Amino acid sequence: MSNAGSVAPANPIPQRILLVEDNYLNRQMLEDYLVFCGYQVLGLADGTGFFQALADFRPELILLDLKLPGIDGYTLLEQKSCRQDYQSIPVIVVSAFAFKADQQRALKLGAKRYFVKPVSLRDLKQAIEEELQRS
């Protein structure tokens, strides 16, 4: 049998996720898990390089902690919502803030989903897949 006319399917380009998490172990664990799931991940330890990372990395989804050094996740959500070029990127919050008021505030500022730490990786992966399909 000849393979002359067949072309091997190209590997799909992995979808890009920007992960903003100040806790090193949490960031490493999430980053490793998401890479294992086939995503390309850029991890940030704080929000100072957030908009530069959006411009350079061009993520298709953002995982965002709320309690960050320097600039908090609420402020990043608010600033992102004011930037026309980034409004369509879905944000999933992964935070230790468990109060309903924190969740409502993040969702009001544009987050699509809200997970309280410790997060179920299976549930998070499902939410990521659903948000990426929608966008």
Instruction: Give the uncertain stretches in residue-range form.
Output: none
**Which outline best applies?**
globular
Class derived from helix and strand content: alpha/beta
Hey, roughly how much beta strand do the residues contain?
Answer: 15-25%
Multimer state? single chain
Whole-number radius of gyration?
16 Å
Side by side, the strands of the main sheet go 2-1-3-4-5
- Determine the CATH topology: Rossmann fold
Distinct helical segment count: 5
The average pLDDT value, as a whole number, equals 92
Strand segment tally: 5
Question: Would you identify the CATH architecture?
Answer: 3-Layer(aba) Sandwich
Query: Helix share of residues?
Result: 25-40%
Describe the model:
The modification 4-aspartylphosphate is found at residue 65. Residues 16-132 form the Response regulatory domain. Keywords: Phosphoprotein. This is Response regulator. The protein has one domain: Response regulator (Rossmann fold, 3-Layer(aba) Sandwich), CATH 3.40.50.2300. The longest helix has 14 residues, at 121-134. The protein has helices at residues 24-36, 50-57, 73-81, 100-108, 121-134, and strands at residues 16-20, 40-44, 61-64, 91-95, 113-116. It contains five helices and five strands. It is α/β, with parallel strands linked by helices. The model has no long low-confidence stretch (mean pLDDT 92). The chain has a five-stranded parallel sheet with strand order 2-1-3-4-5, sandwiched between helices. Strand 3 (61-64), helix 3 (73-81) and strand 4 form a beta-alpha-beta unit. The chain starts with 15 loop residues before the first strand and ends with a helix.
